[in-house]
Amino acid sequence: MGPLVVNEIISAETNLLFAFIIGIAFGFVLESNGFSSSRRLAGMFYGYDTTVLKVFFTAAITGMLGLLFLSLFGWLDLGLIYINPTFLWSAIGGGVIMGAGFILGGYCPGTSFCAAAIGKLDALAFIGGIFIGIFIFAEGYPLWEGFYKAKDLGSPVLNDLIGTSRGVMTLMIIVVALVMFWVGEWSEKKFARDDYKINQH
Amino acid sequence: MKPLKILAAVIIPLGIIIAAVPENRTRPYKLTADELLTEVTEGRQFMSPDEIAQMLIVKDPTLQLIDVRSKDQFEKFSLPNALNVPLESLLSAEYEEILNQDIKLNIFYSNSSNEANQAWMITRQLGYKNNYVLQGGLNYWAETILKPEKPAEGSPNEEIARYNFRMGAGKALGGGSESVAVGAASGSSAPKPVLQKNKKKKGAAGGC
User: Above 0.90 for ipTM, yes or no?
Assistant: First the structure.
């Protein structure tokens, strides 16, 4: 009965070991999907490569279906799953900063480490930027503490907001995702570039 | 077939299944029937009236008495500083913080031990810690603390000591009319249960 660590089926240390293994697998999947290419990541913003959208939407759907089926079979207690709390303003502010950094640098934080691992120098510069950002955030914390903690919404979930069950919400997101995939494929043709081929390395 | 079609052929049926089945809202029990039976037969959940009277008198800050009888009965008579959590609303969300915690020793009581024991058994199976039961309930409390029976002449010293403690405790807790300072001499020397800390039920958050 999951979650394993909460129900003391495995220890916190074993949990970290699992996290380590899953982390390596995550990095491997990112890299084999070409997520260490900043051109591929930036392609999301210009429409010529929508792999980012497809991979993350697929991951979300796989995760949603997996959790709901595990819960259905009684193997997982969804009440004990950690849901990241929502602080509305810092979520929006952080999203804007992250998006700006993404399009400027061509990476998101996780993929920059992936790219650095295969020896890309621009990724190293990006990581330097991450640490400068962390330093500024930590040192200037009193300045933005109010903004950071404002509008605490707890852990709202979509299906509660629109008043459906989790399962129906999942089906709706699946439909939305399939439409988005179709739009993505259309966009890749429409905004195709002569100097860029999808799945090039 | 195109990858998009293959994907759609897999996830749409799964989505329809998960949308059609009811959600699993059962709360899992944390103890197996065997484990619970062991605890019940050993009576580990019971705390004697003497132990509780002692904690009340020294104003032990970890003590939290919980009255599981109805609101009416609670208003007519209750033990000092008790909270009322009627048995039928035991599982309501407003009481979860009180029952599932690691700061206080909760002592359930009812008129006999029955309802209190039921409350304890349910919370125990949900995996909550630090919940106990007043042995014998209020009836036994009245017999032992409020109107203790005088031991016969020539009884062993400890029985007389226990009687004296109970007389004093009864007076201090509203049984008699005189106010008497009560010494720490308790008849039972069972150690107070140790508070068990809850494991944090939160994991780290992730991101891309």
Answer: no
